[in-house]
Amino acid sequence: MKNPISGLYKYQHLPLLAKFILDSHIYDFAVEQLHYARQYNAPLLKFLNHLPDEHLLELSSTSLKELFTCLINNKGGDYIASATKKWLTNQLEMVGKHDISAEDITLVFHIRGKSLINYAFKFYDHEIQIQELLAEINDFLLASTTKSLDTYIDILKEQIHEEEEFRSKLSDALPGFIYCYDVKYKVQTFTNDKLKDILGFTSVEMKSRSDNFYQPITHPEDWEKTFDCRQKYSEGDGEICAFECRVKDTYGIYKWLRYYETILRMDPNDGVREIIGVAFDISVEKEIAEALAMRKEELLEAQSIAHIGSFEWHISGQNSTTNTPEIYKIFEMEKMEKFEEFVNHVHHDDIEKVQDAINLSFKTGHYDCVYRYWRNGKKKIIWSKGVVTIDEGKPVKMVGTVQDVTTIKRIEEELKQKTIELEKSNESLQQFAAVASHDLKEPLRKISVYGSKVLAAEKDKLTELSQTALSKIFDSTGRMQRMIDDILQFSFLDGNQLKQQTNLEELLSEVKELLSETILNKKAEIVTDGLPDALVIAPQIRQLFQNLIANALKFSKVDDVPRITITHTYYIDSPAASVVTTRLEICIADNGIGFDDRDSEKIFGLFYRLHNKAQFEGTGLGLSICKKIVDQHSGTIEAKSKIGEGSKFIIQLPQ
């Protein structure tokens, strides 16, 4: 800053006085300064009272030496400029930039001037010299005081600017808009730019509408809340008023706002004059609250339908329980009872079971118990589950569910009984099938045997028509026997057989051995990529391979060498849960005659045939057996084909 009185820094007598003090009296001058400071109770002393006098005098002497050295060289202006620069840049020792007040400035230079005047009379004894020296001292003090006060004003301006900037940034950072409202004239005198962000209105639009700004855009049902709240201001105790209401934005959409208001200014005659407040957009909060309330209602409804209630039991401290309404319905009680009362309704044979389950949960953190319950003449079976929070080895809280499983248990018991009956029925059916198959096969065997004898004995006597008839009888007998075998095989497939880790390549080798004659006759090629081990029912998978490969050989092209390719791939499923499942996919592809892909699902049906039995022999059960084997492995099988382009059977087995 420019110095308007820079001419005050050139002196004739003051440099001589400064040298006199610096050479012989600097310590005494410092002592005198400290004495005056305490006499006037200078405010700056509060920052220095913790220091001993010796330290204070040492600091003062150092500062005075710098001052007097500058004065000796007639550079008082440089000293003042250096001191104010330190002050502005917050480099002063012991005190901060904002610790110095106007009173400190005037006192410091008054005390300094008083000591300089005292020493002026010690330095000169001639009246004219003393007067000239005193005038120079006054000029120096005037320049120092002026410069210091200018600096002080600059610091105040800077502080005001920083505070205004801070308030402005704080206002902008708030998620709501700040406003001031003149109660007497019913005018909103101020609002920040957040009003536009939230409602779309500018502060100019707000001021132009005065008190009519809010009423037209506030929901009619909420308008009175504003006045009900502001009536509390009449007490004038600085209470903060809060209320919520719906306000329409520039698009005509209502938003929920939450207001916080308090008194900004009071009028001695009229009471509250002006209020200040902040309003926040809580529309999302309201939506979430409504959604949560709806979810809670839906949850309670779902609990009622499923006869499941939930609870929160605070075990330590207050030992209280919070329950959903369904808990009271399940236990047939009107209010929560103490454990001693509740346990009186538990079946006497299950009381110890319940207590043991609770005690165990306090150690493991998991509660699970099914017990019988009797109340109001009703017998129930209750299933309780919970998770216990354990802190420092002590149970703190249990959160869990209670379900009335009386009906479920009854159904389970009925299903169990029906399963037993079904197993007995299946066993009887299997015995019947075994007997029936023997009884059916025996007449067929005799037809075949005696027909062969007739043909052997009477061949020369039979007409060509009779021989043809006998051949058809033999063919029908053979087909009937094969059909009986396939039906029995289909019926006796048992999904409860034990799965074992099995080498699929070895099973395939066994199948190739069984079909070796057909493979050799057709000069077929069977290529595999080396099937892995898998968890399967070995006899069933062997049958699966045999049926599919036999089909591929049967439906091969007349002019082409049959080529059957067998490959495998693994697939890993990673659902949201932590369980990861693996699927083994086996593909059996051939270059045979193929079929229309529209029949890819029909071919697995019982007795379904794509071709006339005169063209290809078979019972129509081979692929049905394949489907049942894959189903019993919880897998899938699908067929893909085009006429004349071969077929592909894709099997997936979970591992």
Task: Give a description of the structure.
The structure is a single chain. This protein is an alpha+beta fold. It folds into 5 domains: 6-168, Globin-like, CATH 1.10.490; 174-281, PAS domain (Beta-Lactamase); 289-404, 2-Layer Sandwich (Beta-Lactamase), CATH 3.30.450; 411-490; 496-654, Heat Shock Protein 90 (2-Layer Sandwich). 49% of the residues lie in helices and 21% in strands. The chain has a 5-stranded antiparallel β-sheet. The protein has a 5-stranded antiparallel β-sheet with strand order 7-6-10-9-8, with helices on both faces.
Keywords:
655 residues; alpha+beta; Globin-like; Beta-Lactamase; 5 domains; 5-stranded antiparallel β-sheet; 19 helices; 17 strands; 21% strand; elongated; disordered N terminus
* SS field, number of helical segments: 19
- On the 0 to 100 scale, the average pLDDT is 81
CATH fold topology of the largest domain: Globin-like
Low-confidence stretches: 1-5
Sheet with most strands: 5 strands, antiparallel
Overall 3D geometry? elongated
Structural class: alpha+beta
Structural Rg: 52 Å
Query: What's the count of strands?
Result: 17
CATH class of the largest domain: Mainly Alpha
In percent terms, what proportion of residues is strand? Answer: 15-25%
What fraction, in percent, of the residue positions are helical? 40-55%
Q: What is the name of the CATH architecture of the largest domain?
A: Orthogonal Bundle
Lateral arrangement of strands in the main beta sheet: 2-1-5-4-3
| Span of the ends, CA to CA | 87 Å
Overall number of domains: 5
